[in-house]
């Protein structure tokens, strides 16, 4: 790009113009088609979140099928080799000299090497077999703050809780109002959605302290029993299926070795779970006292 | 759409009002989804999901005049979730399609400015989803930091920090020095 095309400064006006141009110039699919799907969705025809197209599960299934075909064809080749041997033996000894044991092994190795294993490339197999394995229980991605950023108020440090595994947590697209802090040191970070393959979705909020990460979960399921709430929560965040104890209307439980507390308030079940950091069950109980 | 009309439609939320809102915001919503996902079919799915969620949860919108920005937040959140699920967060390598106005579309008079805008447009497309989200809310929907923080349920400090980093990235992409990233209009400090 020639030097003269560079903007000398990045003004608000230029950014606004760039965004306006982007939004005006994009070629969107026909509006009527999409509207009819939205209408159907509003009537309950399609659950939001059901995305068409590529998925790892489908990819893994296809890769598994390919591997199975390759494995079967390899067995077939091996068997053909075995069946082929007597035919060789049927030929007169002087025309087909007998192989020594070592020569048999070498020949087999060559035949195996000829099997079309390279049809599936290594990265494809790795991706298909272990798509979930790369993240730990809590991956906190801390964005680098350049020295120049001092002018920006980053009192609430930007910590992007990008993945809580094995917790299946996603950003809540339409979050309710969550209180800004649980106490003097635990501040709201992000509204999340706990989604299970089966069972209801729960809305939650991540609160961060200096070392602590807490998850506050609310259920919006009508007529839900405490037992089902704990059980469903278990599907989301690996809560032990058996609550540890019941005390003062609180159900104490453990999640991945960390304390959790569930209670009922205005026909709604709620839970506060320690994701990481040094928070005891007693401290958790006192935090619930500060919740409005 | 005028704020009064917008307010009326959002409050009414019947089929006709929804259709009007849909038509008014469809393209912008699709653009937000597409810029994050870079896939037309998925962007279309996210667009329709965003409208469904918005219409179903419209009671949560306290200021009806902010419908567009609220919808942009829902859309970008859904798109970010989709990327997370599909583990395709490598936004740096995503294909940037020059699907808008080309540099040669402009006359001599506005050529320089157009080229500048075009370069910024391309740089914005390369922003990571959370940065793109705050840039759209501040510069397209003209929201203040506090308003963005309220919509995104983030602290104002986090929003400022994301805006600051977004400008740093834009400056880097445009090969400007860091001083130039501190916008001449001081947009990032608007509160």
Describe the structure.
The complex is a heterodimer of chains A (292) and B (191). By secondary structure, chain A is an alpha+beta fold. Helix content of chain A is 36%, strand content 21%. In chain A, the strands form two sheets. In chain A, strands 3-4-5-6-10-9-8-7 form an eight-stranded antiparallel sheet, sandwiched between helices. A two-stranded antiparallel sheet of chain A has the order 1-2. In chain A, a hairpin with a 2-residue loop joins strand 8 (250-255) and strand 9 (258-265). The relative contact order of chain A is 0.07. Chain B contains nine helices and no strands. Chain B has helices at residues 3-12, 15-37, 40-56, 67-86, 108-125, 129-140, 145-152, 156-173, 178-181. The radius of gyration of chain B is 17 Å and the shape is globular. Chains A and B meet through helix 1, helix 2, strand 2 and strand 4 of A and helix 2, helix 3, helix 4, helix 5 and helix 6 of B.
Quickly list its features.
heterodimer; A: 292 residues; alpha+beta; eight-stranded antiparallel beta sheet; two-stranded antiparallel ribbon; extended; B: mainly alpha; disordered C terminus
Shape of chain A: extended
Number of strands of chain B: 0
Q: In terms of structural class, how would the helical and strand content of chain B be classed?
A: mainly alpha
Strand order in space, largest sheet of chain A: 3-4-5-6-10-9-8-7
Major β-sheet annotation of chain B:
none
Structural class of chain A: alpha+beta
| Largest sheet features of chain A | 8 strands, antiparallel
User: Looking at the chains present, what oligomeric state does this protein adopt?
Assistant: heterodimer
Helical amount of chain B: 55-70%
Q: Compute the gyration radius of chain A: what is it? A: 30 Å
Low-confidence stretches of chain B: 89-106, 182-191
Name the largest protein-protein interface in this structure. A-B, 77 and 88 residues
| Bulk shape of chain B | globular
User: What sequence of helices (H) and strands (E) makes up the elements of chain B?
Assistant: HHHHHHHHH
Low-pLDDT stretches of chain A: 1-5, 50-63, 81-166
- The tally of helices of chain A reads 7
Nearest-integer average pLDDT of chain B? 81
């Amino acid at each position: 790009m020639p030097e003269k095309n560079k903007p000398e400064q990045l003004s608000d006006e230029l950014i606004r113009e760039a965004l306006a141009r982007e939004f005006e110039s994009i070629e969107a699919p026909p509006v009527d088609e999409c509207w009819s799907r939205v209408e159907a969705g509003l009537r309950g025809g399609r659950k939001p979140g059901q995305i068409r197209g590529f998925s790892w599960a489908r990819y893994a299934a296809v890769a598994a099928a390919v591997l199975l075909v390759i494995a079967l064809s390899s067995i077939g080749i091996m068997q053909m080799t075995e069946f082929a041997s007597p035919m060789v033996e049927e030929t007169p000894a002087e025309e087909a000299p007998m192989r020594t044991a070592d020569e048999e092994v070498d020949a087999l190795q060559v035949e195996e090497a000829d099997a079309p294993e390279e049809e599936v490339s290594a990265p494809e197999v790795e991706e298909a077999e272990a798509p979930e394995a790369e993240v730990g229980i809590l991956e906190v991605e801390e964005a680098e703050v350049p020295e120049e950023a001092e002018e920006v108020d980053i009192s609430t440090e930007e910590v992007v809780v990008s993945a809580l595994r094995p917790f299946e947590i996603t950003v809540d697209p339409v979050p309710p109002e969550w209180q800004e802090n649980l106490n003097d040191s635990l501040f709201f970070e992000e509204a999340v959605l706990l989604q299970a393959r089966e069972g209801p979705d729960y809305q939650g909020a991540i609160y961060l302290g200096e070392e602590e990460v807490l998850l506050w979960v609310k259920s919006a399921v009508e007529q839900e029993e405490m037992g089902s709430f704990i059980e469903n929560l278990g599907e989301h965040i690996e809560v032990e299926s058996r609550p540890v104890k019941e005390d003062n209307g609180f159900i104490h439980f453990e999640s991945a070795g960390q304390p959790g507390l569930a209670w009922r308030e205005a026909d709604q079940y709620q839970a506060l779970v320690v994701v990481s950091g040094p928070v005891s069950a007693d401290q958790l109980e006192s935090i619930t006292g500060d919740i409005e | 759409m005028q704020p009064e009309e917008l307010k009326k439609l959002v409050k009414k939320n019947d089929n006709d009002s929804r259709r009007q809102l849909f038509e008014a915001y469809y393209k912008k919503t699709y653009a937000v989804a597409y810029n994050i996902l870079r896939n037309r079919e998925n962007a279309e799915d996210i667009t329709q999901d965003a409208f469904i969620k918005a219409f179903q949860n419209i009671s949560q919108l306290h200021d009806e005049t902010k419908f567009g920005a609220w919808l942009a937040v829902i859309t970008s959140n859904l798109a970010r979730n989709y990327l997370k699920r599909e583990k395709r967060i490598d936004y740096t390598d995503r294909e940037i399609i020059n699907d808008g106005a080309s540099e040669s579309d402009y006359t001599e008079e506005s050529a320089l400015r157009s080229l500048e805008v075009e370069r910024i447009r391309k740089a914005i497309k390369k922003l990571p989803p959370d940065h793109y989200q705050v840039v759209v809310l501040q510069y397209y929907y003209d929201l203040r930091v506090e308003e963005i923080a309220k919509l995104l349920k983030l602290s104002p400090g986090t929003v400022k920090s994301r805006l600051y980093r977004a400008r740093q990235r834009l400056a880097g992409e445009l090969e400007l020095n860091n001083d130039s990233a501190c916008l001449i209009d001081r947009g990032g400090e608007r509160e």
